[in-house]
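[User]
Protein folding is very new to me. Any chance you could explain this protein sequence and its structure tokens? I have pasted everything here:
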Amino acid sequence: MEHWNSTLESGFILMGILNDSGSPKLLCATITVLYMLALTSNILLLLVITMDARLHVPMYLLLGQLSLMDLLFTSVVTPKAIVDFLRCENTISFGGCALQLFLALMLGSAEDLLLAFMAYDRYVAICYPLNYMVLMRPRVCWLMVTTSWILAFLCALGHTMYTMHFPFCKSRKISHLLCEIPPLLKLACADASRYELMVYVTGVTFLLLPLSVIVASYSLILLTVLHIPSNEGWQKALVTCSSHLTVVGMFYGAATFMYVLPSSLHSPKQDNIISVFYTIVTPALNPLIYSLRNKEVMGALIRVLGKYMLLTHS
């Protein structure tokens, strides 16, 4: 099979979901609206958490990091997909593909680990409320955040370098919304079976280990909540936890489908739908899920907007 020159001057063609859709203009408009929603809601949530002193607690520090990751994650993929569709040009350079792969892997892995730390935070808050500020002191919180970023960076760097070292075949078309490992390996001319196994092992490690922490944390939370005598107490605990579990379900479901299920169960159309879900839909919904059902966040938002209105009218 002929090879094409996979150097920095060469590029790929991203055949994303917009090219395969029956109504591409409508889908592009929907994706644009979702992206604007993700930008607005995540930036607003970050501003509220930063500006309101009452939210300077571990839970909202971690939530702020989640919003930052969602904001960056969707911005790595969505603007290019929209601009490419409008310009009728779907090419991405070899270096651009490598950068997009690295950033998507890093941000996805960091969010994966952070969600496990957020579950532990809820476990400590509900099961050990008197020791919460000791067990989740600022130093511990920042250690969690730093660990998420560093481990994700190292994992993404290793996978990006190894994936992009393969020789790629003459077909430059990637049947996917963005540069990711599974669709890229389909273009590799060399035998990638061992590396696919490595990707599978990494996927299981990075997804199922944090997921087991989340399941264990919420199992213990459920046992504790059942023994709370106050109706208001257990209702507040369940509302907080249900928001987190909704986000966990959306993120881990999509990521598990992409990186844990065997390649034989994948199809380009399914992969495109899943990629849209975790790169565009989830970042748009996460801040809404956490804020609309959270009285503290809504109260802080009203206070911040009130201060802004006073400043603009003074």
Q: What stands out?
A: The two ends are 71 Å apart (CA to CA). The longest strand covers residues 11-14. The CA atoms of residues 247 and 273 lie 18 Å apart. The longest helix spans residues 94-127.
